[in-house]
Amino acid sequence: MSLEDVGKLVGVTRETIRRLEERDTWLDTDRADQIGKALSVPLEVLGFSYATDAYSSAAKALPVVGSITSDDKVQFEQTGRRVAGGAHLPAGSVALDINQGKMRGWLLVYREEAMEPISQYVLLRQGQTENFISHLADGTTLWRHIKPAAKQGFYHLNSRYLEPLDDVQMLDLGVLSELG
């Protein structure tokens, strides 16, 4: 069956099916269910499984726990949406939907229980990219690059596309790590 044929059965374009097949687009459970029904096969045949003991190459079902807005703010919400993540992702991984900007349509994947206190080691480990989600003392959560400020206990939060935020306080356990 051609990509175009599958797309017609599912109600999407050939290009959408190609992007799903090549993992350029995240496969969510609704779309996997549509494709499975169109092909008369279970989700597991598509490489998507909820089972904790699924074969090692099966895509893991990741809950989408919120989104990232145009100003890099994280908005947590109960979406009920699940997407197929890579088989390599550790247990407990969750996803945030990136809604705007150059990475629109991508997901930021992390482990909720991977909270770490801010330390020199953590700061060195992030390199030059936005590798952490920061919980600020004012209750805001941002996806930014973290640099220590001159004043003890304060940080500068940088982004490639937005103005920096200088001299912000972060919570003691303010960094979620292991982004994918």
From TrEMBL:
Residues 1-46 form the HTH cro/C1-type domain. SUPFAM superfamilies: lambda repressor-like DNA-binding domains. GO terms for molecular function: DNA binding. It comes from the Bacteria. This is Helix-turn-helix transcriptional regulator. It comes from Bradyrhizobium symbiodeficiens. The lineage of its organism: Bacteria, Pseudomonadati, Pseudomonadota, Alphaproteobacteria, Hyphomicrobiales.
